[in-house]
Specification:
Elements: E1 26-29, E2 34-38, E3 41-46, E4 50-53, E5 61-65, E6 74-76, E7 91-96, E8 99-107, E9 116-119, E10 129-132, E11 135-137, E12 148-152, E13 157-161, E14 164-169, E15 173-177, E16 183-185, E17 196-199, E18 203-205, E19 209-211, E20 213-217, E21 228-230, E22 245-247, E23 253-256, E24 259-260
Antiparallel strand pairs: 1-4, 2-3, 2-10, 4-5, 5-9, 6-7, 7-8, 8-9, 10-11, 12-15, 13-14, 13-23, 15-16, 17-20, 18-19, 20-21, 21-22, 23-24
Amino acid sequence: MTPSGGTPEAVPPPVRRRPDPPDSLIWEPGERWVRGTKGDVTVVDSRRPVLVWEPGRPVPLYAFPAEDVRMDLLRRYERPAARQHGGATVYYDLVIGDLTVRSAAWNCPGEELAGHVCFAWFGREVLDHWYEEDEEIFVHPRDPHKRVDALPSSRHVQVEIEGTIVADTRTPVLLFETDLPVRYYFPREDVRLDLLTPTDNRTRCPYKGIATEYWSWAGAGDVPPDIAWSYPDPLPAVSVIKDRIAFYNESVDIIVDGERQQRPVTLFSRR
């Protein structure tokens, strides 16, 4: 509403509504064929996975019926880790030949998930490879309630670092990902690569693939490293971002159609 004789009041953006208590364990049945391997050994092979969201974690992991897991490769951990994973109390080491991976798996807590086993994903991937159907997945299972849309646009988008325009395009691709700020992907020819320094960093994303190219700001100033990246061979669902370059909105200034955007605060802030 506009106050009498005044200008329209700025309306703050609404905060996303989250109906589930943040300390609750949430799960739902999945229908994908999921396999996990260690070396040449298939440790998990299941067509009845359950997606589990642990308290305090924004992304899911999988739980599997014990009969779909090579339980003969799991050895009950004699001294369970501190109470975590939704209250799990039974932990397992993964033992394959001379290899032992500590606290690799645990029994899901609660009656409804009794007889199901989870494997560690976050921070360390206990198994070498995970597959949904015949496609390898990375980092964590894909969340069925999350969308990633890459849309070509004609907006005028610029990136400024320490007062210098580093990227300027009118043909960006805007990547919208649930719970993250929009990422602007620039054609390579619209980026001042002479102002950036290549690094050997690389990351993996369950929705986009493997980012094998990263750049840091080559100039002076308090700018975090690895502020820009590219996916030379992205997953088919976001193929339109192939070879384009994006920047962390958290660490640079983004200007869209002449309007300077507020820097978001996310888990990627000051990495």
